[in-house]
């Protein structure tokens, strides 16, 4: 019925079996040995009578484009939703597998298929729960948990990059001390909330967004959803939301946090037992969200809109000299368990050499009432996200990164010049140096379409 919003939400378990590889592209991990807390895909469907869309936020380090495509295809068959009406994003918890199928990437195919099917089920089952709903949105702030992790260092304090070059001016996650000058970039302290209620006012679901890469403080081999999962539990308690049928569903999506850490590099790090810090952050952000929700006005007449675009962006493939260096670096017998940093990046160079010259990059935007939700498949820097929010004014906007595939870090051209980990060519950073401005321009174009 037009003019009457409906919503449905569901949580599905996507925890890997013990033994599945727990790691990412650069950060290789051993097998999963223990589960600290389970991984979930948290799914929301909205329907305004004319348009229906779905959002799935998944406790994964990253989700490759092929896994996302598989999940969207299965969900599409069951629900009739076209791919651009489905948003699938990873939270970026680092205590979870990365299922990224890009080129030579060892991964567990059975687990990837399991995750795709579970996400599709979650979206489909969210549709089974569609019921009259009201939505509202609001914004809070939590500056205490976000710190830029890239620092300018005193001359001589930045050592050679993995390729032997000495032109880097920036160090990621620097040690505390006298060599620190200042952070290179910004942080976005905003906490954004889309709140969904049943017609009678009971909490139905909420989608939050905060630009924090992850918290960490894990034990080796353990699986955890990091603060993203703990947030969902905590906010459910704070809102006194029901766990019975249909259960309330909270989800925390990652904002633009490619260069953002939870650690303040100026001060001596507090020594905490494992798992403590993420709980602290989760409790704080859940408290902020609960406060924001108190001021939100909900409406059952919000309309929906969807826009999407696929860009073709260049890949920073290795040149001939880099390939010679890579083969030379790997010429000696390397121990795959104990790779040096140059050996890791030499392997990455050989992997990037197999990439096509250009790759598709999917950008998507949803409008829910006045709220705009934009997505990028990269780890976008906070300054890029802040600039987009500013240009979108007065429209309320938040940006979900690591959505609809995985295309690595997205430094700005200036950040590329300054160097540092996020710019080093690898399967975690390979888009052309002009990718950030091109993506930003395309995202603003999508906003206009909404
Ligand atoms: Zn990352």
How would you explain this protein's 3D organization?
With 450 residues, the chain is of the alpha/beta class. The protein has 2 domains: 6-145 and 185-310 and 357-449, no CATH class; 318-353, no CATH class. It is built from 9 helices and 23 strands. Strands 6-4-3-1-8-13-14-16 form an 8-stranded mixed β-sheet. Helix 5 (320-329) packs across helix 6 and helix 7 (382-392) packs parallel to helix 9 (435-449). The protein starts with 5 loop residues before the first strand and ends with a helix. The mean pLDDT is 93. Bound molecules: zinc ion. Zinc ion is lined by residues 92, 213, 379.
| Tally of DSSP helical segments | 9
Query: What is the helical fraction, as a range of percent?
Result: 25-40%
The kinds of small molecule bound in this structure are:
zinc ion
Shape: globular
The SS-based structural class is alpha/beta
Spatial separation of the terminal alpha carbons: 21 Å
Widest beta sheet: strand line-up: 6-4-3-1-8-13-14-16
What integer is the average pLDDT? 93
Spans where pLDDT lies below 50 across 5 or more residues: none
Give a brief rundown of this model.
The protein has nine helices and 23 strands. It has 450 residues and is an alpha/beta fold. The longest helix has 20 residues, at 109-128.
Keywords:
450 residues; 8-stranded mixed β-sheet; 9 helices; 27% strand; binds zinc ion
Spell out the blueprint of helices and strands.
Layout: E1 6-13, E2 34-35, E3 40-47, E4 52-58, E5 62-63, H1 65-79, E6 86-90, E7 98-99, H2 109-128, E8 131-141, E9 147-148, E10 150-153, E11 170-172, E12 180-183, E13 190-198, E14 203-210, E15 222-223, H3 226-238, E16 249-254, E17 260-261, H4 276-294, E18 304-314, H5 320-329, H6 341-353, E19 358-368, E20 371-375, E21 379-380, H7 382-392, E22 397-400, E23 409-410, H8 413-418, H9 435-449
Helix pairs in contact: 1-2, 3-4, 5-6, 7-9
Bound molecules: zinc ion.
Residues 92, 213, 379 line the site of zinc ion.
């Amino acid at each position: 019925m037009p003019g009457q919003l409906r919503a449905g939400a569901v949580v599905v378990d996507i925890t890997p079996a013990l033994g599945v590889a727990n790691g990412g592209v650069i950060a290789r991990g051993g097998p999963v040995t223990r589960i600290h807390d389970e991984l979930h895909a948290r799914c929301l469907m909205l329907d305004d009578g004319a348009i229906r869309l779905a959002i799935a936020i998944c406790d994964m380090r990253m989700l490759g484009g092929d896994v996302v495509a598989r999940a969207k295809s299965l969900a599409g068959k069951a629900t009739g939703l076209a791919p651009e009406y489905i948003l699938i994003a990873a939270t970026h918890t680092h205590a979870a597998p990365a299922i990224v199928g890009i080129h030579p990437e060892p991964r567990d195919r059975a687990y990837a298929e399991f995750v795709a099917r579970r996400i599709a089920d979650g979206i489909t089952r969210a549709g089974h729960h569609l019921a009259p709903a009201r939505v509202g949105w609001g914004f809070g702030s939590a500056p205490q948990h976000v710190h830029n992790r890239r620092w300018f260092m005193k001359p001589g304090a930045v050592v050679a990059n993995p390729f032997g070059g000495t032109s880097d001016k920036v160090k990621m996650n620097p040690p505390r001390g006298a060599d620190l000058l200042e952070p290179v970039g910004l942080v976005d302290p905003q906490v954004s909330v889309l709140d969904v209620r049943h017609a009678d006012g009971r909490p139905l679901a909420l989608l939050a967004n905060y630009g924090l890469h992850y918290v960490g403080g894990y034990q080796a081999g353990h699986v955890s959803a990091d603060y993203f999962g703990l947030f969902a539990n905590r906010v459910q308690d704070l809102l006194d939301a029901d766990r019975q049928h249909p259960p309330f569903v909270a989800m925390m999506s990652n904002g633009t946090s490619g260069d953002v850490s939870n650690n303040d590099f100026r001060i001596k790090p507090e020594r905490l037992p494992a798992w403590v810090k993420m709980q602290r952050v989760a409790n704080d952000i859940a408290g902020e969200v609960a406060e924001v929700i108190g001021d939100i006005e909900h409406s059952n007449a919000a309309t929906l809109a969807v826009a999407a675009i696929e860009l073709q962006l260049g890949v920073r493939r290795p040149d001939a000299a880099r390939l010679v260096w890579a083969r030379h670096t790997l010429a000696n017998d390397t121990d795959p368990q104990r790779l040096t940093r140059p050996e890791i990046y030499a392997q990455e160079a050989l992997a990037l050499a197999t990439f096509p010259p250009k790759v598709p990059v999917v950008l998507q935007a949803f409008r829910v009432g006045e709220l705009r939700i934009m997505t990028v498949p990269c780890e976008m820097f906070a300054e890029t996200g802040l600039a987009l929010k500013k240009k979108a004014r007065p429209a309320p906007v938040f940006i979900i990164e690591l959505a609809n595939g995985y295309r690595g870090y997205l430094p700005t051209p200036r950040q590329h010049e300054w160097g540092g980990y996020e710019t080093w060519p690898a399967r975690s950073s390979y888009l052309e140096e002009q990718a950030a401005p091109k993506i930003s321009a395309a995202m603003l174009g999508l906003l206009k379409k909404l």
